[in-house]
């Protein structure tokens, strides 16, 4: 029997596969908010049951946080490569809820100018992508009654909340998890219809601080004038993070460890099918707003950033409150590239703020936030060429090695803790609105993504 | 019978008066939040019943918003001045609730280093102050079986939410409300134990805007770098409102209509008993943070301000969300002095923001917010000297004509709409934490405030 039988089975079972995904999407497994702890557990149980239904020996593994799901199959194929597949079943929070056009956890198929989409939180990040691999395995097993090689399934429930349990878990289960290569489906295509394998990922540093001013909220009539206002002061601090002339981050030493992109890689990127206009349009931008000295693609893939993800203080309710609040709050994430060291960067960022603290204020840092370095992948391995060929066949368009603006810390941990390279193949599109209201996943991504994995499994097990 | 009988009655009835105030404070009449509409109505009913209990012909008057309370008594005293007493029964919101040491609407007496205080939202602003006058009338009526002069009671329920119904109501009921002079008890003493009559009030301009950037919330991995971040941009706008060198507001034309304080008034202020250190200590400040060229008292009483009262955007929940939000929000109030024109100032403020809007952003202004000019009171009228004498007797300390940092728009409307001067006498202290968690009113303010009004009524009706 040939790969075509598997592909045909995938085509014939698309409706059933979509229904399974919908069921999975209905579980509100928001990992960052303790309110949803039971739902994260439920999502893990759902995965265990689904893996068992295709003959995988799967189990839920407890952690101090949300459980991991592990499963293994095809160990008899000792002459074939051992693959580990990673995905995450947790999803982002849904606020602002009022901007959703349909309930985030009541997924539905929807017709759009770009074709049919699966609408709902997690449809793209990462439940839909995760299921492309599971559905490929299901079809393979259905056609062959077996699996092409030894496959270890590894699903996490804390990816959207900093993966606090991941490193200890990897260390504890190193033997079971160490495979020849890890497959990860949590990335997007460079452009619609352009199959992409990520060759480098940005790292991430998380920070949060509270600027404390007066000892109580004050009346802006009694104290307006002589009173220091933390909202004004935190705004000045945030404004000081960037140089408006160059668009560069102005924190001293921020760019230590950043390398320019080699000319040959830059040339590849220039021809990778990235549609700058489309990328900017998706966000409602007419121009790129980052470092003026770099192209939009470099700004996204190869340059570090400092972003404010949350900012709040004072009165947010209806009407007016004439208050000078005692505190202001700010959430920050930095994207890291090259050899930037998260710990060193954290120190520089804190120094930048502490050097600028006005009289009568203090800063309180959140001490529970982590960081991870950037990761450049060795794409010279034979598996990468095989996968590139399989993707090129499926999409009828040459697959590319792309950069990545996002951070997939697990890929770095696979390398540093298990000595295992990761191959990141994803089918998301830039307009999927992941982490945003109205998240969606193209039905084409789900369908051809599943077919792509079948072809990759075939290529890697030949 | 002499004034002393009235003062003795007040002393003897202090406990009962305090119980009545407690009952009034238990009604959560937050006017700015629609959730509490019924409670505002309940507070109005409570006042009507309490006025009736001392023989005042009182009634609740509906408005498009919260009701007004009106009452009249003593019309037979045609040879005496006609006084109007104004206060407001609505209170500020209570957030942040977690900073309260006791439930804001479960008032209680509490011993402190500065003596006994009445703790609870509205105890100082303005229910406690309002009741000082009502209790003085109660004692007077009890002793004399009548009232010293014609008194019109006028209580509002929208003072903390911009008084939307006030101007039309004043115009509609001009005849009933027009008296010889208005008495208002909603201000504080220059310093603990220094009886004060406000001689000028700052005006207020309210603004709120939303800065709109990308058309949806974005993933800070996909768009961090090229993406414009509204939280960073609104911070730059807020930082641009002031000149950090001088501490002055940097909005072009902001100071048009502002006059320097005359030397003789400045001399009065220098000797008015204002305790700068105490004032700054109450807020946890070691220095004044306003315009460097002016004294702390001038900054508070005689200089205009631009304050940020609320600032928010992006993720505020537990953990991290790697988002570039599509919007950022900001609430602003300006305090006005001299001849500053609210409408002209609004135009300048909006121009300042609109002139600085970055590419790919737009600003949306709240169009429902009002403004009121500053108000300088004619303190040469005989009533002011009479009241000053009465206060000096009660507090055994010369009463002063003080400035005011706050805004009491109604005083300006009494003048502009009814041609009636207002005399503002209040007994609050700067550490009352009005508009803040743990608001309190000194029992001494309540007791001696009541005695003060009895003396003022006596002096004004001689």
From TrEMBL, chains A, B:
All copies of domain Peptidase M20 dimerisation, residue ranges: 213-360
Domain of life where this protein originates: Bacteria
Q: Which Gene3D superfamilies match?
A: 3.30.70.360, Zn peptidases
Q: Which InterPro entries match?
A: Cyt/Met_Dipeptidase (IPR051458), Peptidase_M20 (IPR002933), Peptidase_M20_dimer (IPR011650)
Keyword set, alphabetical order: Hydrolase, Metal-binding, Protease
Which PANTHER family does the protein's record reference? BETA-ALA-HIS DIPEPTIDASE, SUCCINYL-DIAMINOPIMELATE DESUCCINYLASE
Q: Report the protein name in the record.
A: Succinyl-diaminopimelate desuccinylase
- The organism is Tritonibacter multivorans
- Taxonomic lineage: Bacteria, Pseudomonadati, Pseudomonadota, Alphaproteobacteria, Rhodobacterales
Gene designation: dapE_2
